[in-house]
């Protein structure tokens, strides 16, 4: 596998970024519905159709996040990514930390959810639930960093994820 620093993100990089972002946003907004499904099934009740649909949507969207993230990591490894924009050392370290933690979360959170749901491992479920505030914080830091590059530094950082030049 070759690792290069292309001049810009490819359309595939960009599509994967936004598909994963949309899936994570869906999970943050609607993910709590899985608890309703779990409670109904645990209590021996019959959940209504919306609860079943939303609970299953949470599972399938989580699997999609995992699968798309694996594809994204393979694309990064094979084709590389553009070099980071010039910034101070602390900013560069913060960006690397946020990106690294996001990738770790995009892999481990769906896995812990699957282990909790299908394996019945309570500890995995607790770890999975802790991920929501983590994703909110990391996403907020990621968005703020992108806006900082676009608005304060005016270096076009945000636009790199909208257009493959």
From TrEMBL:
The keyword Transmembrane helix applies. Pfam families: Ni_hydr_CYTB (PF01292). Residues 9-163 form the Cytochrome b561 bacterial/Ni-hydrogenase domain. It comes from the Bacteria. Keywords: Cell membrane, Electron transport, Heme, Iron, Membrane, Metal-binding, Transmembrane, Transmembrane helix, Transport. SUPFAM superfamilies: Transmembrane di-heme cytochromes (SSF81342). It is a multi-pass membrane protein. This is Cytochrome b/b6 domain-containing protein. Its cofactor is heme b. Belongs to the cytochrome b561 family. The chain crosses the membrane at residues 12-30, 50-75, 96-118, 130-151. It is found in: Cell membrane. Its main location: membrane. InterPro entries: Cyt_b561_bac/Ni-Hgenase, Cytochrome_b561_oxidase, Di-haem_cyt_TM.
């Amino acid at each position: 596998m070759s690792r290069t620093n292309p001049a810009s993100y490819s359309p595939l990089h960009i599509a994967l970024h936004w598909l994963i972002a949309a899936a994570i946003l869906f999970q943050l907004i609607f993910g709590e519905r899985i608890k309703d499904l779990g409670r109904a099934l645990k209590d021996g009740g019959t959940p209504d159709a919306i609860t079943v649909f939303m609970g299953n949507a949470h599972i399938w969207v989580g699997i999609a996040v995992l699968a798309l993230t694996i594809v994204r990591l393979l694309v990064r490894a094979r084709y590389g990514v553009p070099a980071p924009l010039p910034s101070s050392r602390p900013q560069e370290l913060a960006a690397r930390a946020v990106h690294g933690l996001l990738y770790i979360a995009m892999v481990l959170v769906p896995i812990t959810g699957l282990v909790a749901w299908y394996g019945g491992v309570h500890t995995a479920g607790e770890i999975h639930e802790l991920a929501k505030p983590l994703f909110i914080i990391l996403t907020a830091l990621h968005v703020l960093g992108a806006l900082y590059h676009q608005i304060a530094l005016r270096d076009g950082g945000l636009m790199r994820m909208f257009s493959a030049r």
